[in-house]
Structures are given as structure tokens and as C-alpha cells.
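Exam review. A common question shows you a sequence with its C-alpha cells and asks you to describe the fold in words. Practice with the pair below. Do the first one on your own.
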Amino acid sequence: MSSSNPTPRPDLQRVPKGDVLGTYDTYLEAQAIVDHLAKADFPVAQVSIVGNDLKSVERVTRKLTWSRAALEGALSGAWFGLFLGLLFSFITPALNTGLFVAAILIGAAFGLFFRLVTYAVARRSRDFDSTKQVLASNYQILVDPSLTSRAQQIIATPPAAP
């Protein structure tokens, strides 16, 4: 049985192989090169961006406090109460402002309570907020060996102005 697709499917369980077209410090730099190749009608299905030397980076964004936890919980609960108030306003024929305000206040109270409880439990082990990401030390563009010289010619020419 022959396939009409001339491009073989990549093996997604293995690290791609090929010639290194270039090594870049950021993913955006590598992405810009692949974009340049794509605009020159290069078969980008034969290109891979490989991140090397992966690191897990956690950046501490702030210290948690009781007041911040209370405010976050109240605001989060108020948003949920606002959502429920809007749903109730669609169900009831006449807009009842008291019901709408009550839903927001009850949501804020429950949000505040639950956030303070979760903060009290988590405070023993973690008293800060952070963001996590996985970053590579560098990014290599790999290309099929039969297309290396063509890719090098394309990236040697500056991209056309938009």
C-alpha cells in the first residue's frame, strides 16, 4: 500500500534528528527563523525546534498575608455571586435588585471563608505565591540533512520588509 503523502510522519516518541541550522538563546529567536523559512516557502514540516538543558524556574511573586487572602477570597466569591445573580435575573421575570445584591454578598462571604480556610491549611508549608515555567538554556533549529543548504541560503537573506 503506497501513501500519497510525500512527507514521512515524524516519530513523536523520539527527539528529532537532523543538521543544526542554528542555536538561539530564546524560543522567540528560533521561532522567528522558522517563520522566515516558512515565508520563503521552505518545507517547514522538515524543521524542528529543540530546547536543550531544560530547567524548572519558579519565580516568587509575593508574600501571602491574611488580609490578602481575605480580599482575594471575597473578590472571587463576589464574582461567583455576580454570575449567579445574573443567572437568577434571567430566570425571574422582574429584575429584583435585592436578590442580585444578596447573591453578590453571599458569594463574597463564602469566598472569603473558604479562602481563609485554605490559606490557614497551606500557610504551614508555603507562605508565598509564585509562577512556574520550564525554560531551555538554548534552542536549536534542526533541519532534514537534504534541505540544510537551502535553509542556510534562505536565512542568509534578510526577510523582506512587510
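Now try the second one, then compare your answer with the model answer below.
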Amino acid sequence: MPKLDASSVPTTEITVLEDAFLQLPDGALRTTLESLSLALRGGQDTFVVSEKEDLTPSEAAKLLGVSRTHLYKILDSGALAHHIVGARDRRIAAPDLFAYRARMLAMQKSHAEAAASTDDLDDLALDEFD
């Protein structure tokens, strides 16, 4: 899984990338290249992952932003599909990892909205006592 270090990409190359995606019609490739240029301009390192790629636990943990130890707990719980390579090495299919990430982000959003709603109700209740 190649990593593109944002600090190693000159701004002139990012400008060339921006000029290139502006020449493309609206679509997935233009959107992807635009996202890449925005990430690089913002100083964010970027990983390039093929949909057919299998990731090591270390790579998957980096993409999820968790420790390897926590990732192993996720794998052991069955929440994220994986397969065994060799005697005991694990691999995670990229689509499975991104589907898991999308589920977790949706759950976090749902919990945040519920918490915000509860806070709003608390504020309303406190206003009644004034």
C-alpha cells in the first residue's frame, strides 16, 4: 500500500494535478483527483489502495486510525472480515475495510446526533426553571 507523503510533493506538482483534473469532465476520476489535490494542499498524507488489495493488520490499523492491538480485537470480535494467510497471518480485503469504516462513521454520526438531541432537551428543561 503506497503512501504519498504530502511534504514530499512540491506545490508545482500539485498545481499541475489541479490543472489536469480541471480538464476532465465531471465524474469519478475528476472527483478523486480533486480530493487528492485538496489533501496534498492541506498537508495530509495519502494512501493509494486498490479495491482488490489485501491489507496487513498494520496497514489496516493505519487506515482506520487505531492501534494494531485494537484492530486485532476488532478482527477477533468478527466485526471486520479477514482471512488467514499461511499459518496465522491475517489479511483484510480493502472493500471489507472500507465497508467497516463506513459503518463505524455512520454509527458515530448517529450517536453524536442522539447526544446533541439529548443536550437540546436538557437545555429546554433548564429553560423551564428560569
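Model answer, second protein: The first helix runs from residue 11 to 22. The chain has five helices and five strands. Full marks require stating both points clearly.
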